[in-house]
Amino acid sequence: MVLSIGLNVGMAVYYWFSLRITPFSVYLIVLFITNALYSAVCPPLEIARDLYGGWWMGHWVCNFYNYFEFVISLGPLMLHALIAVSRIWAVAHPLSYKCRHTYKMAFLLSGLGFCYAHLVDVPGYALDMLYYHIPEKEFGCQMHTAAVREWSRAEVIVGRLSPLLFILLSYVYVNVTIWLRKRRRTGIFSTRSYEMNSVPGKSLTDTNPKEAAAGPLI
After folding, report:
1. Is 183 within the bounds of a domain?
2. Range list of H helices, the chain
3. Which residues contact 178 (CB under 8 A, 6 or more apart)?
4. pLDDT for res 146
5. For residue range 180-211, what is the model confidence (pLDDT) as tens digits?
6. 24 within a domain of the structure (yes/no)
7. Domain tally for the chain?
8. How much is the mean pLDDT over the chain?
C-alpha cells in the first residue's frame, strides 16, 4: 500500500516536472494520481475491516468505500483505453496527431474518460445506496449486485470487457501497421537497389553526388 502510493506519486511528479513532458504524458500523470488515490483509500479500509473481523466503520464510510471500489477503480481502465486511442491516432495520422493532440485535448479526454466511468457505474451504485444496500454488520461492506443483476451484467460488458477488448485490438492494429509500413519501405529500397544494379555500367557507388547528398526520396 505505502509502496504503491509512493511509486505512483513519485512517477506523477517526475512526469509533471520532466523537461520532455508531452500531451501524452497527461494520461500517465492522471493514471498515476488515480492509482495513488485508490491505494490511499481502499487498502487501509480493507485492513481495518480485516483486523476487526467485520465492517465497523459505519454506513457512510461503506458507501465511500464502494464508490472508490466500483467507480474510481474503472478510471485507470478508461485511461488505458485513451492511451490506446492516442497510439492508434499517432500511427494512423501522425501529422494530425502532432498538430492537434494538445495538452488541453489530453486533459479533456481524461475528464471524458472519468465521465464515462461515472455514467456506467453510478446508476448501479446509486440504486444500491438508496434501495438495496445490505446491512454491513451482517454481510460486510459490499454492493448487493444480485438486486441489480441487469445493471451488473451491463457494467461488466460495457465498462470492463469492451475497453479491455479495445485495448487488445489496438495493440494488434498498431503493431501490424508499423510492421507493414516498415516492410513497404524495405520493399521500396530493395526495388530501387535492384533497378540501380540492373543498369549496365552503373552501380550504387556511381550515384550522382548531388543525389547522394539529397538522401532518400521517402
Report:
1. no
2. 2-16, 23-52, 59-66, 75-92, 94-100, 103-127, 136-139, 149-154, 162-198, 209-214
3. 91
4. 84
5. 988 888 866 555 555 555 545 554 445 544 44
6. yes
7. 1
8. 84
pTM equals: 0.79
Question: Are 7 and 1 within 8 A, CB to CB?
Answer: no
Burial 54-67 (b: 16+ CB within 10 A, else e): ebeeeeeebbbbbb
Cα distance between residue 215 and residue 133, in whole Å: 70
Task: Supply the CATH number for residue 109's domain.
Answer: 1.20.1070.10
Q: What is the DSSP letter of 175?
A: H
Domain-embedded: residue 192: no
pLDDT on residue 216: 42
Q: What is the pLDDT of residue 213?
A: 42
- Residue 142 corresponds to which cell in the numbers above? 459490499
Residue ranges making up the domain that contains 145: 2-76+98-166
180 within domain boundaries: no
Provide the grid cell at 94. 501522425
